[in-house]
Amino acid sequence: MNTSLRPPAAFCLRLVAAALAAACFATAGSAQAQDKVPLKLTLPKPLFVGTPVPVKLSNLEPVRAGRRPDFLVPQGVTNLALNKTVTSSDMEPVVGDLAQVTDGEKAGDEGNFVELGRGKQWVQVDLEKPVQLYAVVVWHYHSQARVYKAVVVQLSDDPDFIQGVETIYNSDDRNALGLGAGKDYTYVETNEGRIIDAKGHKARYVRLYSNGNTTSDMNHYIEVEAWGTPAE
Amino acid sequence: MGHAGRVVLRPRFRFCVVALLAVLGALLLRVTLAQGRPFHTDEAVNAFIVEETLAEGFHYRAHDHHGPTLFLLTAAMLGPTPTRNVAEMDAGTLRLIPETCGVLVVASLYFFFPYIGKAATLAAMVMLAVLAPFVYYSGSFIHESLLILLLSLYLAAFWRFLERGRMSSAVAAGVLAGLMLATKETAALILAAVSLAGLLTCGADARKGSAAEGGSDDPAGDADELPRVKTVGRGVRLVLGGALAVGVAFATVLLVFSSFGRHPERAFDLFSAIGAQVGRGLGAEHAYPWFTYARWFSWPGAAGLPWSGWVLPALGLAGLAAGWRQPFVRFLALSGALVFCVFSALPYKTPWLMLAWELPLALVAAVGVAHGWKQGRLVQIGLCGVFLLLGFETFQRCHRFAVDPRNSLAYSPSSPDLARLEHDLDALMTSRPEGRETLVQVIATDYWPLPWTLRKFPHVGYWTDTAEVQPEAVVLCSAENIGRLPGREGKFEAYELRPGVNIFLARK
């Protein structure tokens, strides 16, 4: 009788054992997969609040319907501020470079604006010689609807703005800057910029103040233009 | 060819037709003008409280969120429906309760016709149907419409008690007073002022003696017939009835605050909140000068002319002059004046509180309208013109300038910009692998009514700590957190929540 059946039987036994083991693993894996459920995180719920107190925007200019009216100036005026030197109360802006204030770029894109520190700040443009100014135009950050607080624009031949100072715009109705209470409107920034009537005043320096905005305490400038003619 | 026959309506039928038209007009104005108005922060919070009420019953939060009646009514309305959470709620459905209350206020004026006559009652119904403040706040899911409905019914029940001395009227007044207190805490001041006005009016008439004329359509001729009982007996009846009314009011408050016995441990919550409410009324939040209500009521603004603020006082004076002999007219005038004075004296002011004194003022003004209507065709044309102006004001202030912050009725309104945020988030989610299952993190302290805007996104949480930012989450933050969110140095897009308050979406 042939006893060589042992190796095939052993092989079969091993095969069956392997199959059984595989079946066990598969069953275990399947059981684990069936036991899995999505992890549900408890997220913090909103806190109930009372009626919010309205944010008061002092002196906000009423919404204008339609196109901005033309601002009339004498023939031959040019932007005398283009590429002129800019100084500031914050000589190390948080974002950007002061030279961007007069570089001619007025788009509201990221990288085009200068960000000055919190609270009361100013920028000053040196026109290099006294000129006759008819309009100062300013663009703060305008890629979103915001209002810059206490916007004050002054002209002077004194670089320190101590003597011979002419205020041509003042929306600081609460005198937060200490330059006197103004009656001009605060306004929502747009890509049109803000045209300020300079009324033909002669000056070498133009200084623009602000005191934060409705979204943060920071101050921003995209561009300042000074339209005039060389003084006679 | 014969001539056309004329249809002559009986006076009673005419009254019913005009009354029905006023009620239907009230319904139409309230439902249509509220559509599309962004959900106010107060409405949004109330919706979340309704969700909580549906899940675990009403919890009274003494500092800010008023009594249970609005929430229990809304929960009862939603109960038979599958709606159980805010994601399943919509503004139109929730606003049905105050809109219905606003319409019922108009209908409730029917109870006043024995005292002011049919003509004045009809004038009052038309006026209340059209007046801008009543239309505006009827379209808001807040407590005011319900409170004013209860006040209107209370005025009628209270006067009936003073007039007749019936205990059934005392019980009715007590129930209504209790419901008012269970609606809003300011009801305590309103009830005190109205009760004082009633006692002063009755006291003055008791000294003068009674005037007796039959009821008629002529408001100038109408006069209440004061009970011909001995003064002492009447006084005892009033004291007993008053005590009964107070007891019934107390029991009503306990019943409602306990959710009709389901939560007896919460029955006394209103009384434990008295200190907090007094502090709130005298505190710095929503604190305005004494003349603020007059300014909100009648000062011209950019959001349309406040015709009601000029017309109502003028017609009110005319009504007081015409109805001076009627104790009920004097009672209404005194009630309105006392409520106005009390509310003006309190530092805490919000514009919807004006309805409590505008209601009696409008009723007295209606007496003036009815009296003027009898003065001839010219005055009738003038009065029609006045009502047209009131309707125009309602269109301006309840629709065209509904959420304009210059509209004195729109107090901290929500911005229509929130619809843009919802749309942009939807678009952002579709580009994410998890789709709408993406986690949305709001990192801010001032974010309402954002929870209502985001209610249909399944995974939204609210944090104040910028360190909690998750790498794959969509992040919305307040202005002060820009630049402080780890891993979020890209562009921040602003969306307006309310005038002057923005939320920023961090774009990667």
Description:
The complex is a heterodimer of chains A (232) and B (508). With 232 residues, chain A is of the alpha+beta class. Helix content of chain A is 13%, strand content 28%. Chain A is built from 1 helix and 10 strands; from the N terminus they run αββββββββββ. Mean pLDDT of chain A is 82; it is low at 1-5. Chain B has 508 residues and is mainly alpha-helical. Chain B contains 20 helices and 5 strands. Chain B has a 5-stranded mixed beta sheet, covered by helices on one side. In chain B, strand 4 (492-498) and strand 5 (501-506) form a beta hairpin. In chain B, helix 7 (132-138) runs parallel beside helix 18 and helix 15 (307-322) packs across helix 17 (355-373). The longest helix of chain B has 27 residues, at 231-257. Chain B is globular and about 80 Å long.
Reconstruct the topology from this structure.
The complex is a heterodimer of chains A (232) and B (508).
Chain A (H helix, E strand, L loop, with lengths): L5 H30 L42 E2 L5 E4 L25 E3 L3 E20 L12 E5 L9 E5 L23 E4 L4 E10 L7 E3 L1 E8 L2
Chain B lengths: L10 H24 L6 H16 L12 H10 L12 H4 L1 H13 L4 H18 L1 H7 L5 H21 L2 H17 L3 H22 L22 H27 L11 H4 L1 H9 L9 H7 L8 H16 L4 H19 L9 H19 L3 H24 L16 H14 L9 E4 L6 H4 L6 E4 L10 E4 L14 E7 L2 E6 L2
Parallel strand pairs in B: 1-2, 1-3
Antiparallel strand pairs in B: 3-5, 4-5
